[in-house]
Amino acid sequence: MRVKDYIKGDLFLWALVVALSVFSFLPVYSASTNLAYLHGGEGETASYLIRHAFHLGMGILVVYLAHKIPYNYFKALSLLALPVIVILLVFTAFQGNQMDGANANRWLRIPMIGIGFQTSTLASVVLLVYVAKYLNSIKDKVITFKQSLVPLWLPVSIVLGLILPANFSTTALIFATVLLLCFIGGYPWKYLVAIIGAGIFSLLIFMGTAKLLPGVFPNRVDTWVSRVETFMGDGNSDTMYQVDKAKTAISTGELFGVGPGKSQQKYFLPQSSSDFIYAIIIEEYGAAGGIVIVLVYMLVLFRLSIIAYKADTLFGTLVVVGVGFPIVLQALINMCVAVNILPVTGQTLPFISSGGTSIWMTALAIGIVLSVSAKREVLRTQALEEDDMNPLDILSEAL
How many Å apart are CA 66 and CA 188, to the nearest integer? Predict the structure, then answer.
């Protein structure tokens, strides 16, 4: 049996995901040396690699299982999961301010197995599928702001409002994607302009409240401001330290890098296996290696665009854009942060950075996209059986 007999959907996208996953072992193994040194000695590096292999293995399993589910089923699943997500976000936000020394307002520890779960990552996938479902349901109707206020903007506001205090970059990413979905789905421009204005106003109110009542949202606004000040060249020592070490790693890499596993900045750069892994990649593989990674993500974007364009329904198009495009945007944000084009955001590099839930939720999104392309493949096969196509038509359909 061939592999193709077991998997469906866009084989190019499958190949790109597997390629990123396999490559990730090299920079993660190298970058985790610092963590091993800090927490257990150099001999413990293998344990981080095994953990990463487990996360990736589970991720590929999630892709496989999700792509076997007919994508229309995700309409009902998003509707059922949305209230659960809200409850999880509320619980996460109010569980406390620290967990193992880190901000607990992002994480929820799963009982028994002890794995930290970032609820905002699952919330983003569920919400964006829900938005796609709603826009598909009103595609043939006259859209008014009043009618869409409760079924569309109320859930969006609640989810974003719960994520914002702990994670501004994720909130902004989700909000931008919702606006993109609304634009593609034919939602009136005049209402979108009003929504953008309301979003900016709400953000200013939140920042003002956080400044006046620092005990309610401890340190979050100060963290955002600090990151922006660092980007402008006047930040605090901790954030500036990360940026400086990333710059050093990039400048050391030059064109072809110092070689796999030979990074020196991995010993000094915090989050070298997650948030700043792209800097380590450039140090070890040079600007040439960094460009190759960018091109791979551009190929992912290309395949996502093809799948969205060829989807058999509006919901298929919207769900591919909603859950697929943020993966590439997140990758671009991560890489821009590493090379100091954007302020530090905390976004990981999809399928390359170490992590658990970030990998699994990205895998879920890819699985949904592949489910859409698998349906298109079924319809194309049926068309070929009913009416033979000439070779040029078959090639066009394949691309």
Answer: 33
